[in-house]
Every structure is written in structure tokens, then in C-alpha cells.
Amino acid sequence: MIKTIAKISLALTGTVLLSTSAFAQSSDWTRSVTNMFASKQTYPSTAQMRGEEGTAKVKVYIGADGAVQKAEIVSGSGSAILDKEALSVPTKVGKVPAPPAGPTTLTVPMTWKLA
């Protein structure tokens, strides 16, 4: 049996000045969104069989209502299969809780590693 690790993290891009309570809301929101993306990320079996690993960075545009508007690869993983999976994750999620500071852009690094 092959053990695999699929790891996702989320980074808020841009500079935003937040009060302490707004920062706490943003931190909670980021954690919630991170969990939503992580729950939808899979490790394609074809990539596993080929021994493909890597990290793709996806820029995700999120509207004020939390709808995922668009996603694009910022930095590829080196695997077309993993890049395709990375782009599919935001679509699978579709909508997240509304961002506390309005529309935002997130850069989401998604990592696949064979254990």
C-alpha cells in the first residue's frame, strides 16, 4: 500500500490593515477556508502511480459573498495532473464564508508528496 500526503495551506495576499478583532476574524476565516480547501484536495491515482509529487500555487479570487470567482495557476507543480487537480479544488468548494474584509485574492499552495 502506498501512503500519500496531500497538504494544503492558505496565504492571504496583499496588505490589509486590520483592528485586533478584525484580525481575529480574518484569522478564523482563513483557518475555516483552509480546512474547506484541504477537505476537497485529492491525490490523483495516476499521479501516485507515476510517482509524481510537487507543490502548485493557485491564486483564488473570492467575492464579497464568498463565491469563488476564478482560479489560476501562479506556479506549477511540475505535473500536469497535479496542476489540474489544484485548479479543480476551488471549483469543488465553490463558495466559502464571506471574507471579513470584502472581496479578496488568496494564494493557495497545494502540496502532494508520496510517503
From TrEMBL:
Which N-terminal residues, if any, form the signal peptide?
1-24
| Gene Ontology MF terms in the entry | energy transducer activity
Localization in the cell: Cell inner membrane
Q: Which domain of life is it from?
A: Bacteria
Specify the TonB C-terminal domain's residue ranges.
28-115
Q: Which GO terms describe its biological process?
A: protein transport; transmembrane transport
Note the topology in the membrane.
Single-pass membrane protein
InterPro entries xref list: TonB-dependent_transducer (IPR051045), TonB/TolA_C (IPR006260), TonB_C (IPR037682)
Q: Any idea which UniProt keywords this protein has?
A: Cell inner membrane, Cell membrane, Membrane, Protein transport, Signal, Transmembrane, Transmembrane helix, Transport
Q: Name one GO cellular component term.
A: plasma membrane protein complex
Family membership: Belongs to the TonB family.
Q: What name is this protein filed under?
A: Protein TonB
